[in-house]
Amino acid sequence: MPKGPALGRPATYEDLQRVPDHLVAEIVDGELHVTPRPALRHALAGSSLGDELVSPFQKGRGGPGGWWILFEPELHLASDILVPDLAGWRRQRLQAVPDEAFLTLPPDWVAEILSPSTARLDRVQKLTIYARERIPHVWLLDPATEVLEVLVLEQGRWVVHATFGANEAVRAVPFDAIEIDLAQVWGDREAGR
What's the rounded Cα separation, in Å, for the pair 88 and 50? Predict the structure, then answer.
């Protein structure tokens, strides 16, 4: 699938809509980026992290509540269309999830699960857009190396707030009200063990 320059013009939403559903399509800096669905280890990390966060932060079970956590939401941010692996909005900013195909309100937190095919895009171009949109927290998870990087936006620049690895139990902003077992996120430990 061609990217923006191969189209001879900036990519449009119509170009994105023509991409088959089994692929992930984003428009970043006018270029259409098309990638296959994530590998299973990538998907496991995303769904496991979401599971760790949804119950206490979205449903309020054993945690403070007050958030909407969405898997692969489509974000229309200025002329860019992004699909982060996970994103969260504080309910004081997004009182209800609209019945729409996408959101234009930047989230309060984004998690990108790195893979060889998307790491450069996630780390370079998408982080620049997230900073431009003043998203205060980004987590970068790398299932291959079992590393979680917690980034905080300070004066328009990303600062590494913390880095966690392997099987650590962590408290990471903005979800530091609970402890997250990274072994569960990576799939290295069965629940309840």
Answer: 10
In the sheet that 80-82 helps form, which strands lie side by side, from edge to edge?
31-36, 23-28, 80-82, 75-77
- Kindly report, residue by residue over 52-97, the tens digit of the pLDDT: 999 999 998 888 999 999 999 999 999 999 999 999 999 999 999 9
Residue spans of the domains in the chain: they are: 1-37, 39-186
Instruction: Say which CATH topology domain 39-186 has.
Output: tt1808, chain A (3.90.1570)
Burial annotation 32-43 (CB, 10 A radius, 16+ → b, else e): bbeeeebeeebe
DSSP 174: T
Is pTM beyond 0.90 here? yes
